Amino acid sequence: MSAIITPVFSKPIYFNHLELNTKHILNLISTQPRKSYNNLDNGVVEKDEELYLLENTNLKFLKNIILNEIQQFANGELKYINDFKITTSWITELKQGEQSQYHSHNNCFLSGCLYLKTEKDCGDIVFQNFDNQKMHLEISEQNVLNSKVWGYEVKEGDILLFPSELWHMVETNNSKSVRNSIAFNIVPVGTIGDKKSDSHLYLH
Fold this sequence. Notes:
It is a single chain. Helix content is 12%, strand content 30%. The protein is an alpha+beta fold and 204 residues long. The protein has one domain (14-39, 46-203): Jelly Rolls (Sandwich). Strands 1, 2, 3, 4, 7, 9 and 10 form a 7-stranded mixed sheet that branches. A 3-stranded antiparallel sheet has the order 6-5-8, with no helix packed on it. β2, α2 and β3 (83-94) form a beta-alpha-beta unit. The protein is globular and about 55 Å long. The termini are far apart. The model has no long low-confidence stretch (mean pLDDT 90).
């Protein structure tokens, strides 16, 4: 019998490639403001409505596609019974020479990103575990069991979903093209926690 190794208490990241007409989607959002980065912080939006991109009626088809991926991840793979909804959503833009800083997302359960315009070396998304590890050892080969850093080289049509508390950043865009994506946050709806506990809540 072979030994069994279980990555208990892991932080799962969902990755899939969608067959989308990304150029058409970029045309649909061409007049929408972008959340840009300046290498010092993670950007700001000037108006509240810029944070609700996927509520636009002409993007309803795209929102439904993303919700289907969320259902596959949260209900199909993670086996949660709650429904889920997208709260905020916005366009990100990373110009040549720009990068984002490490950050996590608050007031949400899952976060995600759908990539619409990418080039080679336009900036990998990188996740890092900042937990206090007592010893740092050299490794002969990186894998999900020994890594404190995990990155993805993303392409147009790729979608990532991940726990919102995961720290992540985007590496420097070394291409000559602008990198565009749609980022979004997700919360469960319905009853959260034990219905018999005084700390349960209902979200809708």
